[in-house]
Every structure is written in C-alpha cells, then in structure tokens.
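in:
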C-alpha cells in the first residue's frame, strides 16, 4: 500500500498510530487508480453467479 500511495517509511517514523492513519488517509485522497470508473448499476450487470458444490471432497 505504501508503494501505491508513494509513502516512504521515513514519512511514518516517529508518528503515533493515529498519525500514521491520518498520513495514509491524506495520501489516499489523491490516489488515482488505473481501472476505469463505472457506476454501481453497471457493475451489477457485470457480476457472475458462483455455484457452491455441496458434495465436494472424498467419498
């Protein structure tokens, strides 16, 4: 996560746990992912059904 947000370990050294969370949160606000943004309704049309097999394993 630090690599994705371009945070160095030295940026977090000496900070309290709360300050580290704030630092990561601030860095994540400017994060731009590579995946295209889609609306929730469109994402629902791209789902698949996962079938769970009941009789799996040794017989």
């Amino acid at each position: 996560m630090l690599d994705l947000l371009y945070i160095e370990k030295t940026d977090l050294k000496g900070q309290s746990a709360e300050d580290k969370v704030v630092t990561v949160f601030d860095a994540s606000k400017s994060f731009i992912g590579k995946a295209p943004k889609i609306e929730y309704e469109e994402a629902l049309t791209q789902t698949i059904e996962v079938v769970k097999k009941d009789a799996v394993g040794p017989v």
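note: DSSP finds four helices and no strands in the chain.
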